Amino acid sequence: MNAVARYLSHFVSLIFPELCVACHSSLVSGEDLLCTDCRYNLPYTNFHQQPDNIVAQQFWGKLPVQAAYALYYFNKGGKVQQLLHHFKYDGQHRIGNIVGEIAGSQLAESEMFRSADYIIPVPLHKKRLKERGYNQSACFAHGLAKKLKAEVELNNLVRTKATKTQTHKSRFARFENMQQVFAITHPDRLINKHVLLVDDVTTTGSTLEACGIELLKVPGLKLSIATIAYAV
Prior knowledge:
Elements: H1 3-15, H2 36-41, H3 54-58, E1 65-74, H4 79-89, H5 94-107, H6 111-114, E2 118-121, H7 126-132, H8 136-148, E3 151-152, E4 157-159, H9 171-177, E5 182-184, E6 194-202, H10 206-215, E7 222-231
Parallel strand pairs: 1-7, 2-3, 2-6, 6-7
Antiparallel strand pairs: 4-5
Helix pairs in contact: 5-8, 9-10
């Protein structure tokens, strides 16, 4: 960048400063989407160091999950909610890559997560994907893959029908809403593989459970789960 371009860039940033997607403070040179304070001080769960964490417990007796994890705690009105709102609804798809790399660095410390062969994002229905322009879970998956050296497997787990929003539904209603929604298109690719299934937020776990049930129909498949946040 030449001197004139740098001057113009600094001038524009004074008038229209870039803001942190979590706390909305002004970013300084070298910061990208997240300010340094948020990168280090968002509410990390450290679940990669706790095999029997709350996310893993959600699937006990429901899915034979090898390991489960969420990067952050999600509190209503908190910074993680702001981050995810920008990620899902404001077109800030690069947030997924950034938090995926942060999560991937943590999971690379875990022998269980390091053994993943494929990372599979929870799919969006094609109508929703067209509306949003990207699958936020796939963005997260690509960020994870950079650190875990695993392959992102797209279009193998597919959503066969659109569903109504899960917001305000009970756990049972959420589970019912997700029945017979997902399918595997190329099960042969996943035989005897370790799959890391990823999504943006874990609430009741109904969507992940429905995906996991379908994936575990594949012979020899081992399943682990990772999300950006766990809703407290």
